[in-house]
Amino acid sequence: MNIIKNNFLYISCIILLSACNLPSTETIYDDYTDYDNDYDQMYSDEYGQENQPVTAPSLSIDIETIPLVQPDDLEYLGAFRLPDLDGEITWEYSGHGMTFYPDGDDGGENDGFPGSLFIVGHDHYLEVSEITIPQPVISSNLEDLNIAETIQPFSDIHGGMFPIQDMALPRAGIEYLPPQNDQETGKLHFTYGQHIQGFEPSHGWAELDLSDPQPVGPWVFNGYTNYATNDYIFEIPEEWADKYTPGMRLATGRFREGVWSGFGPALFAYSAWDEHSPLSPNSTLNTITPLLLYGIQNPGSTDILSDESMQMDGYQESDHWWGGAWLTAGDKSAVIFVGTKALGSSWYGFPNGVVWEYDCAEQDPPTCPDVPEWPDDNRGFWAEDYRGQIIFFDPSQLAAVATGQIESYEPQPYASLDLTQFLFAPYLENETYKRDIIGAAAFDRENGYLFMIERLADEFKSVIHVFHVNSNQ
Question: Fewer beta carbons within 10 Å, N or C terminal of the chain?
Answer without folding.
Answer: N
